[in-house]
Structures are given as structure tokens and as C-alpha cells.
Specification:
The chain is an all-alpha fold. The protein has helices spanning 6-10, 17-26, 31-43, 47-60, 65-77, 81-92, 105-122, 126-139, 144-161.
């Protein structure tokens, strides 16, 4: 399964871990320094450290959607499926989310739902996966056919196993 984390594709960090840690130590509440460290650890696949810095970021900026998205991603990469789902959902429930890359909010939102769908599949909850795909299709009609195909594939699989009806998410 492909994991979506659009925000990290845009980040072009050139600094070393030492440089980033120094900036963070100079100002421990600097959200950009914390964010950059978390991104660095995602890029280096050190998801435990990324989790730590995203958790710090969430505690300082509780309405920063990107922080929840990043934290969910770090948890997902550590196969903490339920925690990842809950974290993505917290970010999606923000009334007035702040984002680092404001223009990419819809893409991040769709990415969060795709990641939630993946997590639900990993814990054998296909009905929730289908619900997520339905939400994605409504958010971006241009990919509704892709989502319909995914729903159809899951539905066929479930019918072979005698699964239940989809739920509303």
C-alpha cells in the first residue's frame, strides 16, 4: 500500500541533524525548528524521533494540521495503526486548522483520509476503508473513479469472505 504524505514531498531540507538540533536547542519553542527536525527524521526514516518532535509541535500548536498529519504518518510507519487513525482524525476535526503550506490543505486532507483507509485495511476494517474512499471521492471528484474502483475491489473481497455492510465514517 502506498502511504501519502504530500507535505513532506515539498520540504527540501539541506541542513544536517546537528544544525537542526542546534536551532532547536537555541529556541525550544520555535515551531519551524521543531517542524524541520520532525521532517528530517521522517526523511531519514527515524519515525520514533519524528513522532517525538511532532508530538512536541502538537503540544505547542494544537491547531496545526500539518503536525497531526506528520504525527499520524510517523505512527503509521511504526505500524501503530489505531494511534495513527486517531491522530489523523484529530487533525481532520480541527475547526480552523493552521497549515504550513496553506495551498496544499485539500491535498493533505485527502492524503490523511487515504492513510486512514490504509490503516483500517491493516487492522481488517474494510467497511471503514470504504467510508474513507467515499469521503475522498466527495472531496475531489476528479479521482472519484479511482475511489470507486478501490471500493469495488474491497467489496468483492468482502463478499468472498462474507463481510458486512459499509459504515458511515
Amino acid at each position: 500500500m502506498r502511504i501519502y504524505l504530500n507535505i513532506f514531498l515539498f520540504s527540501q531540507l539541506m541542513e544536517t541533524e546537528e544544525d537542526l538540533l542546534k536551532k532547536h536547542q537555541e529556541n525550544p519553542k520555535d515551531t519551524k525548528a521543531i517542524y524541520d527536525l520532525a521532517i528530517f527524521y521522517i526523511k531519514t526514516e527515524n519515525y520514533g524521533q519524528a513522532q517525538k518532535y511532532f508530538e512536541s509541535l502538537v503540544s505547542i500548536e494544537p491547531k496545526l494540521f500539518d503536525a497531526y498529519n506528520g504525527l499520524g504518518f510517523a505512527l503509521q510507519r511504526q505500524e501503530k495503526w489505531i494511534d495513527a487513525i486517531k491522530t489523523y482524525q484529530k487533525g481532520l476535526k480541527l475547526d480552523a486548522p493552521k497549515t504550513v503550506l496553506k495551498d496544499s490543505y485539500l491535498k493533505l486532507k485527502i492524503g490523511s483520509y487515504k492513510n486512514i483507509a490504509t490503516c483500517h485495511l491493516k487492522i481488517n476494517e474494510p467497511q471503514h476503508t470504504i467510508a474513507c474512499y467515499n469521503i475522498i471521492a466527495k472531496l475531489d471528484p476528479s479521482i472519484s473513479k479511482e475511489m470507486e474502483a478501490k471500493i469495488e475491489a474491497i467489496t468483492k473481497l468482502r463478499s468472498l469472505k462474507g463481510g458486512s455492510q459499509p459504515v458511515l465514517y
